[in-house]
Every structure is written in structure tokens, then in C-alpha cells.
Amino acid sequence: MNNLVAKIEKMKPFFEKVSRNKYLKAIRDGFMSAMPVVLFSSIFMLIAYVPNIFGYYWPANIESMILKPYNYSMGILAVLVAGSTAKNLADSFNRELPINRQINNISTFMAGVVGLLLIAADPIKEGFASGYMGSKGLLSAFFVAFFVCNVYKFCVKRDITIHMPKEVPPNISQTFADVIPFAISILLLAVFDIVFRDLVGINFAAAVIEFFKPLFTAADGYLGLAIIYGAMAMFWFVGIQGPSIVEPAVSAIYYVNIANNLGLYQAGEHANNILTPGVQQFVATLGGTGATLVVTLMFAFMAKSKELKAVGRASSIPVLFGVNEPILFGAPLILNPIFFIPFIGAPILNVWLFKAFVDFLGMNSFMYILPWTCPAPLGIVLGCGIGLLSLLFAVLVLVIDFIVYYPFFKVYDKEKCEEEALKDQEEAATEETEESVEVSGDVVDGKRVLVLCAGGGTSGLLANALAKGAEDKGIKMTTAAGSYGAHYDMLKDFDLVVLAPQVANYYQDLKIDTDRLGIKSVACQGKQYIALTRDPEKALEFVFSILNGESEEQ
Q1: Is 524 part of the annotated catalytic residue set?
Q2: Which of 95, 199, 308, 324 has the fewest CB atoms within 10 Å, measured from its CB?
Q3: What is the DSSP string of 68-113?
Q4: pTM of the model
């Protein structure tokens, strides 16, 4: 097992390179920017259709009023994602371009929106059809965003633009500078649309859905599900945020399937599409990647090891809400050969069990999108429409995870107990002293610190610890937590940016951004980060050492 883990770890540089791919990051970050829209709109779906489960149906006019916010938000998801993906890709391209020759990301946003409408909307009387403006148009949205940004990059690098006299204000000059790349992007897409419709007979977005239907079906099979969620867990096992690699490839399928499931349910049919956001958030990652909810509870209430008991109790609440970095790095589970098999096997078994419930017992799959921080068992029941089968599944899947993890937990608990006994003997022989750092208020007073992670949950742990440490010392410090990918426009407002372990491999990209702004940045690794979240004083000392120039990247 150790040899296998060592071989996988050797591939970590390759995995990190893939996760930092500009196009994959742009898709992920584009979706991250649109998540408030997705979550907001889903509230109205729950209000409109959850009462149906209990036999109550809104009058048609009331249902129409309830669904209007959904239709005008989630119904144009592809339009929004085309723009946000284009903006994020432009930001990535700008890191490689001279500071005085940058792509206007707002212009690429607008070009992405217009470009998608060109290739995905069919003209109708007094307007255009919106059938591919929502989740069905996501693949086309990515295509448009990539195309537009590369046209802009081509023009900006070669200075193909309209030059205005120096006396013209910069904001006016920028408007004219964007005219040529915008025009080239849209005209090329317009020509492409005319030729494509003439040859194929349908718009590009519709053709893409038809072309990828076999892939959607294959991904929903047992093998496809095992590959997708096994890969996510394996990447996380070597310390790389798995969804950053896998999610961009399946995100469009997620939202097409969940829209289809709701349509099937509304038509009185079986919602049977498996691959949805809820399966990832509440089934495969029950308590976080690796399905770690049960192992956290084992640590907290069954471990004989003092360390594991403390880690489990400290991690139980965050893991219940889907933030499992405290257990991943605190135990640790990551790169721990003992947990390799259950860490990858449990998510796969969970998804297979879910599919069996849908295929053979007739349980509805996920029809609603819920916040990823919703406790997993509750998320399963609500997301699948509140039924007895979903409640039974939520209980059974916890039992399965317990059975999978228990033998490995016992081995690790025994190993840690032996380590603690040896450590106690060593500490009895020699007393260890720890030197603390004197924090100077002049260095940290009034500073603004931003902590970034993948989804905004883990970063909050350190941001809160820093705020507590500063409060205890009577120091004025502003702390904020955010998600990497939605941070670009926030950087200028902070003095220090800290990356959590799950996004530490993006440090070089972040450093380019922070160096341009003249602010400091640092990346934390593993146990160091978890230790800081639990000790406000040490967290403050850590920030002081960075701001004081005593240390660089961790």
C-alpha cells in the first residue's frame, strides 16, 4: 500500500499542472461566480414544488408568480456563465501580458454574452427563444468564452486596436480599444452561426447537446460514476482539490440532468438522472471528499487515542456542514496509506448505492439544488423530494460508510495510541519548551487579511481565528474569507492574502497578482493550517511573521 501511495504522490506535479490549466480554472471560476444565482433561484423551485409531495398544488397563476424569479435567473444561467467564464479566462491571460497591455475583462464578459446569444438562440416573432439560455447551453457557453478570449488575446498582444490621442481620457480610450476585438469576435461567431445552421439545420447549442448525449448516458452508468467520483477522491488523497480537475468536465452534465429530473417529476415521471450537483455534494462527498462524516464521528466518540479524539471533536461540526479539511489535514487522512482504500472506495459505493435505489427501487434522483453547506443527510432527503426511500437511503449510506471505514479506523487508532505512549515517555525524559513570537501591534494594526479556499468554508476557519487573536490582543485587524476564483477584484482591498491547503497549488498564479498590487501572499500546507485555525494566538503570530517579512511561502 505504501508503494502505491508513493507512486500516486509522484504524479502530484502532473495533477497540479492539470488543476492549474487556464481553461479548466476559467470554467470552475465562472461557475463559482454564478453560484449565488443558482442557489437563489433554487429557493423558488422548492417553494413551488415541495408542497406537491404533501398533496398541495399552487393555483396556476400563483405558481407562475413563484417561478418567475427562477426563470429569469436560472433560465439564463448559460448566458451568465458565458460572461463570467470569459472574464475569468481573460484574468488568467492578463497574468502573462505586460501591465500596460491588458485585456479588458468586462469587454470579454459582454462579448461572451452576445456571442452565446448568436449561436444558441433561435429567432422567433418579436424576439428569440430561450430554450438554450439555461443549463442546456452551458457547453456552448464555454466554447464561446474560450473563443472570445483568444480573439482578444490575439488582438491585444499584436496591438490591433484603435489608438486615440493622448489627450483623450483613459476610460474613453479603452472603449475604442475594445471595439476591434469585440467586433472580430462577434462577426466571426455570426459567420460561424450562419454556416453551421445551413449545414446542420439546428443551432450550435442544440447540436452540442445531441452530440454529447452518449457521454451523458455513459457518465450516469456505474463505471462512469466510479471513474468520476473515484478520481475526485484520489486527487484529494494526494493533496489536490479534486473537483478543480474533475468538475469542469462534468459541470454541464450536472445542470442539464437536474433540470431534466425536475421536468420528469413535474410530468409525473421518474426522475432518474444520477449525475447531479446533489450526488457530489451529499452522496459521494458525504461530509466532504472521501465521505468523511462517519470517520469524524468515529474519531470523536470511539477513538482511544487522545489526538484522534480531539481531532474528531474539533472537526465534527465543520464536517457536518461539508467542510472536511480539519479532518483531512488534522488526522491526517490525506496521503495516509491506512485510509487509501476507504477514502476512494466509500464515495464510489455511496454513489452506486444511490443509483441502485433510483434504478431498482424507484427513488427519485436529485431534483433541487441546495447550498453545499447543507448537512448531507438532510440534503439527500430535501434534494430528492422528501420521500421514505430517500430517508432510508440517508440512513443506509451512513451504515455502509461506517462498515467501510471501521477496520481502517481501528488500525489507525491502535497505531496512534502506540505513538502517544512513546511520546509520553520521551516527554517525561525531556521537557520541551516552545518559543513564542512577540507580535508587534505596529506591524499588524489596521491590516486587512484575506483567506482563500475552494468554496469559502475552510477559509472562514482561519479568518475567524485571526479575528479572535486580534481581538484578544486589542489589535484592529480586518479579516475576510473568500473562494479562490471569485477573489480577483477583491485583492486590491487587502494587505495579505493567505491560501488554504486545498488551493495552495495556485500560489504562483496568486503571487503574480499580488506582486503587481504590491501586497503580500502566502500559502499554507496541511497540518500547519489546521493548527492555526485552532490557535488564534498562533494564527496572529503567523500573520505577523509574514507582514514583518520574516518568512515567505509556507
Answers
A1: no
A2: 199
A3: HHHHTTGGGHHHHHHHHHHHHHHHHHHTTS-TTS---HHHHHHHHH
A4: 0.80
